[in-house]
Amino acid sequence: MGRTGLLLLVAAFVVSLSLLPVSSPALHGVVLGPDGPIADAVVRHQGTSIETRSNLHGSFTLPLRAGNRRITASRDGFLIGSSRHGLLRLSFLHLDDDEAYAWVDPTPDAADSSRCGNCHPAIHREWDRGGHARSATGRHFMDLYAGGPKGGRRSWSLLHEHPDGSGVCASCHAPSLAADDPALYDLRKIGGVAAHGVHCDFCHKVAGPAGGEVGFTHGRYGLRLSRPSEGQRFFGPLDDVDRGEDVHSPFMRDSRFCASCHEGVVFGVHVYTTYSEWQLSPAGRAGQSCQSCHMKPTGQMTNIAPGKGGIKRDATTLGNHDFWDGSRAAMLRRSLDLRVETKRGVDIEVTIRLTAKGAGHRVPTGFIDRQLILSVEALDSQGRVVEALAGPRLPPSVGHTLDGTIGRLYARQLRDEDGRTPAPFWRSLPKPIDTRLRPEVPDVLSVRLPDTAARIRIRVRHRRFWEEVRLEKGWELDDQVVIDRTIDLAL
Fold it and tell me: What DSSP designation does 466 have?
């Protein structure tokens, strides 16, 4: 459309507005781009669920709303636009990607107005207490990556055993590292914004998925970035943020967004399997995304940038950024259902059913060394331990305090070529033994006790690392007891 035609269209639109009755119950408007009308744009009263779409001529009709809300419009290929009237102009979105772009530091700093935490303090606090903030510098990660065992011995150290392959870690753990940064192959040298791990500006520069196969194209290389040469550009899940530099990104609510870092074959071993587990789960088949659980709104936040241009919103529309919906232990506790049945005869028969309920993946998931350990302890009426007559026993890999106890280990157990377990994934045979819980599928344990047993105590622990590794590295005990139940066996 030429300039003359566009001017005539706008003039006709203004005239049509002047002819509307004052008491009209609706707002009539048009969405225009640099080349003319824009069809199928989402038009809404900012911060509300009141929305409509523009027609083939760019026109729309939006119910009137009390108050002085702005009207916003968004569409693929354009920056979000807004107006206090019915004429909305959108600018083209340019998806250039400048590798020289200077990443924005997430840490609040009054001397630097561009810092993410200055305007989004609540979101920054949530992110800062989560694992993404420490993905490049966390103690456990660095001890496995570069060594650091107790006494200075080198053990379970990827960097020392595979220095040429260590860059695969940086693609997820420090995705904003520059291609020529020496820290790419030695994260001990990391500094600057990249040391903040998976930070705000990185995620909000993701324009969509890149080429490559999920699981084999890792981290930043599985994502298409759009870093501007000039000015700013932010991709987000809200379609009505109208600072002139914002882009609505439905991809940010898609599980595929998570897949680049949460699905990965490394050194021939399927180390990260959460995304493929989700695809096979009831939640995945129903279209329930990772974000619907791990970024579930807390119900507490109503303004993402209070006092900095943010507006009041429905708290149920604003996701959390700690990714645990409270805490890891609380989320695990909600996802596990323990049922116990007892039957007295000559002996006592105990049937234990543990089920992962509502989880969108196997439990536990994430890093390959994570475990759930169910243990059963029987006591007589005097509180003395009673030996079980029959039942499954925990293996030596759980550590000497639980080895041989009645119970079950839910984990992926890696073995090296010599049959040694546990083993780090970079020494492991390709296929681990996988005993983890499947979503909605109960695991059943049958235990037989002598009739002197008066009660049983059932505990389910979550561990992020093998006990042998914890002791060797000098780490503090990391057990999280997510279920602790005592059952009276008396008649």
Answer: -
Element (H, E) at 331: helix 328-335
Decide if pLDDT at 7 tops 50. Answer: no
What is the percent of the chain with per-residue pLDDT over 70, rounded to a whole number?
Answer: 93
For residue 33, which phi and psi values (nearest 5 degrees)?
-115, -175
- Please indicate, yes or no, whether residues 144 and 278 belong to a single structural domain of this protein: yes
**DSSP SS3 for 289:** coil
Q: Structural domain tally of the chain?
A: 3
261-313 residue pLDDT tens = 999 999 999 999 999 999 999 999 999 999 999 999 999 999 999 999 999 99
CATH of the domain at 41: 2.60.40.1120
- Please give the pLDDT value at position 211: 85
Q: What is the pLDDT of residue 14?
A: 43
Query: Which pTM was predicted?
Result: 0.91
Q: Within this chain, do residues 140 and 166 fall inside the same structural domain, yes or no?
A: yes
Neighbouring C-beta atoms of residue 2, cutoff 10 Å: 8
315-324 confidence digits (pLDDT tens): 999 999 999 8
Judge whether 109 lies within some domain. Answer: no
Distances from the Cα of 326 to the Cα of 109, 191, 334, angstroms:
27, 30, 11
pLDDT of residue 328: 84
Within 8 A by CB and 6+ apart from 132, the residues are 197, 198, 199, 323
DSSP result, 85-142: SSEEE-PBPP----TT--PPP-S--TT-TT-HHHH-HHHHHHHHTSGGGGTTT-HHHH
Q: Would you tell me how many other CB atoms lie within 10 Å of the CB of residue 164? A: 6
Residues 193, 127 share a domain: yes
**Domain encompassing residue 474:** 328-488
Q: Does residue 209 share a domain with residue 151?
A: yes
Beta bridge partner(s), residue 410:
372
What are 28's strand-pairing partners?
Answer: 61
Residues 143 and 291 in one domain: yes
Q: Mark residue 451 as left, alpha or beta (left: phi above 0; alpha: psi -120 to 50; beta: remaining).
A: alpha
Mean pLDDT value across the chain: 92
Short-list 353, 477, 372, CA closest to 434: 372
Q: Within 10 Å of residue 143's Cβ, how many Cβ atoms?
A: 21
Query: Do 298 and 270 share a structural domain?
Result: yes
Answer positive or negative: Cα dihedral of 63, 65, 70, 74.
Answer: negative
Residue 354 placed within a domain: yes
Give me the DSSP letters along 198-246. Answer: S-HHHHTTEEEE-SS-TBTS-GGGGEEE---SSS--EEES-S---SSSE
The verdict on 309 and 203 lying in the same domain is yes
Does the residue 456 lie in any domain? Answer: yes
Report the C-alpha gap between 326 and 296 in whole angstroms. 10
If asked whether residues 194 and 268 sit together in one domain, one would say: yes
Q: Read off φ and ψ for residue 63, nearest 5 degrees.
A: -55, 140
